[in-house]
Design brief:
The complex is a heterodimer of chains A (256) and B (171). Chain A is α/β, with parallel strands linked by helices and 256 residues long. Chain A is built from ten helices and ten strands. Chain A has three domains: 21-82, no CATH class; 106-192, Arc Repressor Mutant, subunit A (Orthogonal Bundle); 203-256, DNA Methylphosphotriester Repair Domain (3-Layer(aba) Sandwich), CATH 3.40.10.10. In chain A, the strands form three sheets. Chain A has a four-stranded mixed sheet with strand order 3-2-1-4. Classes of the chains: A alpha/beta (256), B mainly alpha (171).
Chain lengths: 256, 171
């Protein structure tokens, strides 16, 4: 019976189960969990923690996603069963309903401002890079907006694909290149051909003759106007000269 | 916050085995032990966020974490009943590993179950003194009890574990 205290010591040498530390860190929001989800865009790996969704990518494998996450976000990440409401939220987000919370820690305040603003662009619409820059009060930082969007850790859900160039080119896309950007926008109902035709002719806005309001071409307020009442406009000055005022919803120019 | 997060991450990696071993001895099964150990660290994290830099600097981490574990177990005892092993049929889900390892595993778990059956005041004392190998002074500190009380409780606990408790326990 002298062995009892020795046995107790052996009990004291028990190791914590594998993955225990990661689970603890995930519980306090210092490590993230992830799972693959089947969506209209194919398999999307989504990572989350207690603050919200922290990253998304269409990786080819779990391994590829983990490597990317550790390098890009800089935290640990481990596979886990998704919270019961997450699949529904992902589906809703891709259908244009905004229900998700995000964890944007680790990004600069400028990057966060760009992503928050981008999130306000409705499904089926697009805005130029310059619009995002102006809306967040940094009108000269157009290129920086492009960089911030290229580094968007949560593509598809923070819709950086809805920010496009004004010259009719679609612009780059971190979520899978210009082809993927084109495909997603088409899926969302954006008429890319029409946008391109306008851009090639140097037209940036459209005005509706009956309301005397001019908008970005995809703004939903102009969607029900008859085609015969729509005029294509080059810039703000000529629009105002023709008697149009800027739309208060899509804000193609600072509303005077 | 960066400072606290870094400190906490190191603490988890450094103390996870100790906290888990203490939790296993206190609860008697690995499932509850993981719950208790996780709760311990989550409480520690929340507490750290409210501590001043001086308090964090002077923290005796091991004693502090053990005190939290003890409190987590005490609160659980008040709240939930420990899960009982079903007697009619369905065996526990021991996945059979390599033979020798499984034997060792079972012996340790069997001992943990016996320790966990001790009344809580003996159990806390025995676990900290003999499983976690703290000194009597450290145990007294972690439990907030006088050293004499701890010594008596450890003695009584070991006696119960050895099984010679049928004679007079109360002397």
């Amino acid at each position: 019976m002298i062995a009892l205290t020795t046995d107790l010591k052996r009990l004291g040498a028990v190791k914590a189960p594998p993955g225990f530390a990661d689970r603890v860190l995930a519980q306090v929001g210092m490590a993230d969990s992830y799972a693959p989800f089947e969506t209209v865009l194919g398999t999307v790996y989504v990572a989350w923690n207690r603050l919200g969704v922290s990253a998304a990518a269409r990786s080819k494998s779990a391994r590829e996603f983990e490597d990317w996450f550790r390098k890009d976000v800089g935290r640990q990440v481990m596979p886990a069963e998704a919270p019961p409401d997450l699949a529904g939220k992902i589906k809703d987000e891709l259908n244009g309903k905004r229900r998700m919370r995000f964890d944007l820690r680790g990004l600069t305040t400028f990057e966060q401002a760009v992503l928050r603003k981008t999130r306000q662009i409705p499904r089926g619409e697009v805005r130029p890079y310059g619009w995002v820059a102006r809306e967040i009060g940094r009108p000269a930082a157009v290129r920086a907006v492009g960089t911030a969007l290229a580094n968007n850790p949560i593509p598809y859900f923070i819709p950086c694909h809805r920010v496009v160039r004004t010259d009719g080119e679609i612009g780059n896309y971190g979520g899978g290149g210009p082809e993927a950007k084109r495909a997603i926008l088409t899926l969302e109902g954006v008429r890319l051909k029409r946008l391109q035709d306008m851009a090639r002719g140097g037209f940036r806005y459209q005005g509706v003759r009956t309301t005397k309001i001019f908008c970005y071409p995809t703004c939903y307020t102009g969607r029900h106007a008859l085609e015969k009442n729509i005029v294509w406009l080059h810039d703000e000055a000529s629009a105002r000269a023709a008697g149009f005022r800027p739309c208060k919803v899509c804000r193609p120019a600072a509303v005077a | 916050m960066q400072g606290v997060d870094g400190l906490f991450e190191r603490m988890v990696h450094e103390h996870k085995d100790r906290v888990f071993a203490a939790s296993l001895a206190m609860t008697g099964n690995r499932h509850d032990a993981e719950d208790v150990a996780q709760d311990t660290f989550i409480r520690a994290y929340r507490a750290l966020a409210t501590y001043s830099p001086e308090r964090i600097r002077d923290l005796k981490e091991r004693a502090w974490l053990h005190r939290i574990t003890v409190n987590v177990v005490r609160n659980r005892v008040r709240g939930v009943k420990p899960r009982l092993v079903e007697l009619n049929g369905s065996e526990s889900d021991h996945s059979p590993g390599p033979e020798a390892k499984a034997m060792e595993h079972m012996q340790i778990d069997e001992l943990a179950t016996r320790v966990a059956d001790l009344p809580i005041r003996y159990r806390e004392a025995v676990v900290l003194r003999h499983v976690r190998d703290l000194s009597y002074a450290e145990v007294a500190d972690a439990l907030g009890q006088p050293v004499g009380t701890v010594k008596a409780n450890v003695h009584r606990g070991l006696k119960l574990l050895r099984g010679d408790d049928h004679d007079r326990v109360d002397d």
